[in-house]
Write a structure and sequence with these properties.
Elements lengths: L3 H17 L9 E8 L2 E6 L15 E4 L5 E2 L8 H10 L5 E5 L2 H8 L21 E2 L7 H11 L5 E4 L3 E6 L2 H23 L8 H11 L11
Parallel strand pairs: 6-7
Antiparallel strand pairs: 1-2, 1-5, 2-3, 3-4, 5-8, 7-8
């Protein structure tokens, strides 16, 4: 496992890339990576109210999963409960990107899910990308609603009148999924301007989800 110092830098780098690409503005959104420190099992997360370009490794906070206690020089993101509840519910997830990306936020303000207008919605590990019910930012209700909406296998959802959440087995996956959600949200918003389109049916999406289980590069024994 990478050292916590390396992971702190990774949290900053991922956060900065998403901000520079316009998925977050100023100090909006947050990013975390699950890890274990001398304080116990928990996660490293961006601090509250600080611009990403100003961050240094010492500014990244550690939050312990067992009791929500935070350690470090700064206060953790106001959405630390969101990250904590997802990690507690889904042990296989190792990183979370929460964004206020424009098109995802627009759809969330309409309480819209992103339907299977393209097979690529399956990147969320579900047939569509659902929208969690509205709750005040930073609240337990928001965290609980998000976990319920993600379910047992989902890795992405919108948050009503708020933004989006993307989860991954590592930081690269969470960061990349955050980009994909915004891309899909933008395409769906544009399609609706044209009057919508035919959606892929559940039977087809189940086929796609099965194919996605083994999608990508894998090691080959003969190489």
């Amino acid at each position: 496992m990478p050292s916590n110092k390396k992971l702190r830098r990774m949290v900053i780098e991922c956060s900065r890339r998403l901000a520079h690409e316009g998925l977050n503005i100023n100090s909006s959104g947050n990013f975390s990576i699950r890890t274990v420190s001398e304080e116990g099992e928990g996660f490293l997360i961006t601090p509250s109210g600080m611009s990403y370009d100003s961050l240094k490794p010492k500014d990244i906070c550690f939050v312990r999963l067992s009791d929500g206690c935070s350690f470090g020089f700064r206060e953790p993101s106001s959405e630390w409960r969101l990250h904590s509840e997802i990690y507690l519910a889904r042990p296989e997830l190792r990183a979370i990107a929460h964004t206020h990306s424009p098109f995802a936020a627009v759809l969330s303000c309409r309480d819209e899910s992103i339907p299977p207008f393209t097979y690529m919605t399956a990147v969320s590990r579900t047939e569509s990308i659902p929208c969690a019910p509205y709750a005040t930012f930073g609240s337990e209700a928001l965290a609980e609603g998000c976990v319920k909406t993600l379910g047992e296998s989902g890795r992405a959802c919108l948050l009503s009148h708020h933004g989006a959440v993307a989860c991954g087995a590592n930081a690269k996956e969470a960061e990349g999924l955050a980009r994909e959600i915004e891309n899909l949200a933008r395409m769906w918003a544009e399609i609706q301007k044209l009057g919508g389109c035919k959606l892929l049916d559940s039977a087809e999406m189940k086929k796609v989800l099965k194919k996605f289980e083994n999608y990508g590069q894998r090691s080959r024994n003969n190489q």
